[in-house]
Write a structure and sequence with these properties.
The complex is a heterodimer of chains A (about 350) and B (about 375).
Chain A: H1 4-7, H2 22-26, H3 33-69, H4 91-127, H5 130-143, H6 148-174, H7 191-215, H8 219-227, H9 232-261, H10 264-269, E1 272-273, E2 285-286, H11 289-296, H12 302-340, H13 345-352
Parallel strand pairs in A: 1-2
Helix pairs in contact in A: 3-12, 4-5, 4-7, 4-9, 4-12, 5-7, 6-7, 7-9, 8-9, 9-12, 11-12
Chain B: H1 2-38, E1 54-61, H2 66-79, E2 82-88, H3 92-101, E3 107-110, H4 116-125, E4 130-145, E5 153-154, H5 156-163, H6 173-178, E6 190-194, H7 199-211, E7 232-234, H8 237-246, E8 250-255, E9 263-264, E10 266-267, H9 274-284, E11 285-287, E12 298-300, H10 302-307, E13 315-323, H11 329-342, H12 345-355, H13 362-373
Parallel strand pairs in B: 1-2, 1-3, 5-10, 6-7, 6-8
Antiparallel strand pairs in B: 3-13, 4-8, 4-9, 4-13, 11-12
Helix pairs in contact in B: 2-12, 3-4
Classes of the chains: A mainly alpha (about 350), B alpha/beta (about 375).
Chain lengths: ~350, ~375
Amino acid sequence: MTATTPAADGRAPGTPGGPTGAAHYLGKPPSKAGDRTFLGLSTGAAWLILVILAGVAIFLIIKAAPAIAANWATSPQLNEPVANTPGFDSFWAYVGPLLFGTVWASFLALLFGAPVAIGIALFISHYAPRRIAGILGYLVDLLAAVPSVVFGLWGILVVRSFLGPLNDFLNEYLGWIPLFGGQVSAGGGTILAGAIVLAVMILPIVTSISREIFLQTPALHEEAALALGATKWEMIRLAVFPYARSGIISAILLGLGRALGETMAIAMIVSPKIIVSFRLLTDDNPGTIASNIANQFSGANDLQRDALIATGLLLFVVSFAVNFLARWIVSRTSVQSNGRAPRRARARREVTA
Amino acid sequence: MKLTKFGAIGAIGLAGALALVGCSSNSNTTPTSAATTEAPAAPTGLDAIDPTLKGTITAGGSSAQANAETAWTAAFTSVATGVTVNYDKSQGSGGGRSNFIAGAYDFAGSDAPLSADETTQAAATFPGGAVNLPIYLDGVSVAYNNADASSLNLSTATIAKIFSGKITDWSDPAIAADNGGKALPAKKITVVVRSDSSGTAQNFTNFLAAADPTDWTWPGSGTFPADITGTDAVKGGGAVHDEIAKVDGAIGYLDHSAVGDVKSATVNGVAPEADAVAAAFSDGFTIASNGVKGDLSGKFDYAKITADKSAYPIPLVSYAIIPLKFKSADQAKLTVAYLAFAASEDGQKAAASKASSVPLPQEILDEINATLATVE
């Protein structure tokens, strides 16, 4: 068998590959039918993602073009009062406040969520006993499986009421700060409530990426810091954070990408207007692009739908840019870390445990 | 062993459920057959349905009439067992109209009739053009929650001022004047509106724009005017209901069928009861045809409605939009049979009991059936 395999060139169907040793794999790979099929399938899958992405982009551009080009002040279709497009001078006047709302809500979510996520990641990677770390990591990942409409319901039924007294307190005593000023919302549909729910929703992705990065810290760095007399916290500051800095940034950016596109939870919780406002506690909050599409699409006429798709195109561009930035930072990190020869978590745990 | 046990329990449960369904459709049919025996000349409603019909009706659009569609589908398919009706309410009125124009639907449900543009586009898809038939009637309630007010009456002008943000407190003299001069204790008014576009908002703002143009300077609009600030905007009628129920001092607009346990204000002294809404339709519904023969799209003449002191001034009507000439004669027969049932006394009663809508007056039902008779 082993002698005939090279002669048959491995092409004869039904010829078993057989354990012919490393030499067999070093040469020209055997191209049996199964191998070729799998190669074709996986290559096809890889190309398919590009085709889909390009298809989405082309669809968005073709549909968006008429609405971006239209004269918003005079277009009878855009000024038909069946969606919220009437009364704007141009597409940019319409999408501007929505883009602001999208970025503002996501920024607030990161502000609340990212420190907590990094804390959880650090606890899992460096503080928790191994068994608890495993369970906790699993639970955080499980958060990612909760549908956003459930988060929306949770926001409406629990978070909004829960924040009521806090809203009143902040408005009464800190109302002189513009952030907490204005007429406080009675129902609780504030951007603060939306951002807090959004913060919970981005926890899993930020936590799991940060955790992976923290675990990759070279054990030698940590041991060196400890050997120099550093406490555990000093060791984390001296060895873990500098090593993981760009990883944390990319984790946060990926969380931002998640927050930018979130639709249902925000649409259900936040009371939206098309305005630019930094106030956290009122009913007049800037709407987000995704929730605005969800709210307005059903009533809109053709050109108004195109306008909504155009806002979606802008969101697509922004999310793409954010993700691209995150991946670029990650790739830069991994090139650097190759030189440092990182050791895996197993090694670190053996040292510290 | 365990599995089969559970299977048996499940089967019993299923049989029980089926039996219950059977009961409910029976209870629907009994009064009908009793009613029609008195006038056997022209069978209408359930008795007119041909049980040998077969096929699938594909439709979608307005979520306002979705519960009524469910009631009609249940009753219709209990007789014509070979028929399936798929009504997709996720599309909304606008989505229903555009899918209809694209040729994907046998009929569309829509809170607004086809616009002039859409009528032209529909004529391109369907050579005979398309007609709007009002098949669903309800009232828009001004729902409120104020622990200090067990009942509330509001005039048109006061409603316009509250919803445009000119009146912000329950102690306002205008509210007192509407309620026999008795002022309510001071409390902030929270105006709850829909953040998504809806037929409810369309009909509510149509009313305000027509009945009080000095206080309400916006046109009738499917989306509550975005430049009115200070409103608590929530997504969907269900959320409006929940928000009003939760917030003391809240007021908002809701389909009367969705009011549930929340209180409704009387408008100019008239409560949103079925008779008052039907009276408003009879008084004020003015047919403004889109030019296609048999079209029954219309507008409410609010001056006529408010002149009638027994009519509730904010009715809501929703349309079924169908082509005059189907591509297939079988499909035409099927869709016409379904809509003829919806536009029958039985159909309207079924919707009233299951979806809390208001039965349409017989005159308009006759006109709808006259148009349906011309569909081929």
